[in-house]
Write the structure tokens for this entry.
Amino acid sequence: MGFVAKAKRMTFLVHRWTGVLMCVLMALWFVSGMTMLFVGYPKLTPWERMAGLPALPSSGCCIDVTAALAQSRNAGAVNSIVLTSVGGRPHYVLLEGDGSRLAVDAVDGARLAAGPGQALASARAFLHGAPASYAGFIDEDRWTHARSLAPHRPLHVVEMGDADATRLYLSSATGQVVLDAPRAERLWNFVGAWLHWLYMFRNQPTDPVWSWTVIVLSSIGVVSAMAGALNGIWRWRFAGTYKSGSKSPFREAYLRWHHILGLSFGALLLAWIFSGLMSMNPLGVFDAKGMRPDVAAFEGGSAALVRLPLATSEAVALLAAQGFRARELEWRVLAGQPYILARDGRAATRLIAAEQGGYAVRARWPEHVLLEAARRLLPQPMARIETLDAYDAYYYQRQEQSMYGADERRLPVLRAVFNDPGHTWVHLDVYTGQVESSLDSSERVGRWLFNFLHSWDLPAMLDALWWREAVLIGLCLGGVLLSVTAVVLGARRLRKWSAAR
């Protein structure tokens, strides 16, 4: 047997046995992928969170920020100050220098004890009086793997008696609702994201065993798909036919259909399994290679030390006079200039900043202020600044069920392009004065090899709405059929192998 024949034989055997190993998982990945088009992993979006909060009162509230900071272990190191509502009552929520959080009653200045009773009160306030039943205290379960929940662990669990049978998870540090998971969403996730991401193997937010399990299985899938594609092409008669009159050499139905379906959907299968592997960022191939943007320098000061000298009640009244019913206030700094960022029940924003000896409510920041702040992000010079009035391939909004569905992507947005070694792009939200995202050249490559190949998420595709979904479902069904034929063939091969032993 010559070298070429041996290589083809080896390719055939690799495809056979990796296919036996992966065929069931591949079928499940296709089925769960279709489910994820419509139902995402549980998350609390900014819009859901703000809708569950009452408007802040303009009278009878609130103690000065300084009084709230007195409850901190180190007031000068506090990284964030937010006035929000917990259990229907206004509270300051402080992000401490060590990453922990605490809530301070904005009326009497008492530090909140976020026990089961407070969790029940917060849950009822969030769903406006729906019956609530305390279900316990957990560090993590199948719906709470997100790293963003780390400062709030352990979590209170409250089962709600609303029409959706919602399960709420609440912070043990602040008493806030941090995740909602209606029953239908939980049930669909067993055949959706939970299954697709193999979360049955994940035990903690950072789990190297789970990560490497997914990486290894995805890698085997890539090898199997590549070997199958080569094998299928070699066996197809592009010129002429076999004696049977078919271009496929296989007479048995499942083998023939597996061959035809593999040629029809094999490239798609390879793209999806490869991009799934890339989603795990194996060996950190898409990590930023240079300095990350310095957000502390961008802000130019700590909100705990540099604050707008405006009483909280006056800030709420000033916003109300402009017709803006604030549900949350956040004290922030931009380029050394203190301001207050307000959000309403739709998560729309307004700014309060000093202006001409007084205070003004703004819809957005002037571009020159953002430019001054942006120059502080990296030591290298800025190559250019761009204003995006429409979404493009690197800045776009995903549907709520997507894993990125909670990301706020407002327009217009400023893109600062730097001359650093990583050619970093930074997107600045003109409405909040915050860094919305940053991407260096490695991360932009990852955007194509994972996000695009896996989700078909170019803005034009996302704008196609149900057309995109219909095409993806049709292709997934083709993948399911390909995988099912592989399951049948794999079961036969295992029976033969077992009988021969």
Observations:
- The two ends are 27 Å apart (CA to CA).
- The CA atoms of residues 117 and 411 lie 41 Å apart.
- The mean pLDDT is 93.
